[in-house]
Amino acid sequence: MGYHVIDPADIDPTPDRPCTHRSVGDAADLSELAMNVYEADPGQQLPLVYHYHDRQEEVFYVLSGTLSVETPEGEYAVGPDEVFVADPDSPHRAYNAAESGEPVRVLAIGAPPAADDAHPYEPER
User: Fold this and answer.
1) Does residue 34 belong to any structural domain of this protein?
2) Does some domain include residue 7?
3) Containing domain of residue 57, as a range?
4) Whether the predicted pLDDT of 65 surpasses 80
5) Closest residue by Cα to residue 109 from 92, 84, 81
6) Beta carbons within 10 angstroms of residue 113's beta carbon
7) Is 48 domain-assigned?
8) What average pLDDT does the structure give for the chain?
9) How far is CA 91 from the centre of its chain?
10) CATH number of the domain that 26 lies in?
């Protein structure tokens, strides 16, 4: 058996990310799902690139602020206590719009973990 109590503020942010990213999953040594806390200022995006996953289901729960999500089908605005879900093979780019005027804080959960499952997506413009 194993139990953990983790304060995400105690997790060192991942270097070289477009926003503040803390991997709760890594801190808890989770092997079957990814769990991350993102804090993005206006104009910052959460993932490194516009992307999709082969197998991973991804959920973004907005804790505060408004999360913008770009998809090939359109833009979504996800407010506090709302959830955005991206199914496998569904391209998405989550970000905090430059004009938002406030930070966004998001809990992101994905399963299975996406170590080799994420692929860049190039939209046709």
Assistant:
1) yes
2) no
3) 22-114
4) yes
5) 84
6) 17
7) yes
8) 93
9) 13
10) 2.60.120.10
User: Which residues fall within 8 angstroms of residue 27, CB to CB, at 6 or more apart?
Assistant: 4, 6, 11
DSSP collapsed to 3 states, the chain: CCCCCCCHHHCCCCCCCCCEEEEHHHHCCCCCCEEEEEEECCCCECCCCCEEECCCEEEEEEEECCEEEEECCEEEEECCCCEEEECCCCCEEEECCHHHCCCEEEEEEEECCCCCCEEECCCCC
For the sheet with 20-23, list strands across it. Answer: 20-23, 34-40, 104-111, 57-64, 83-86
Tokens of 26: 């890594």
CB 63 within 8 A of CB 106: yes
pLDDT tens per residue, range 69-107: 999 999 999 999 999 999 999 999 999 999 999 999 999
Asked whether residue 9 is domain-assigned, the answer is no
Instruction: Determine how many CB atoms are found less than 10 A away from the CB of residue 25.
Output: 19
Pairing relationship of beta strands 34-40 and 57-64 according to DSSP bridges: unpaired
Number of domains in the chain: 1
Planar angle of CA 27, 107, 35, nearest 5 degrees? 35
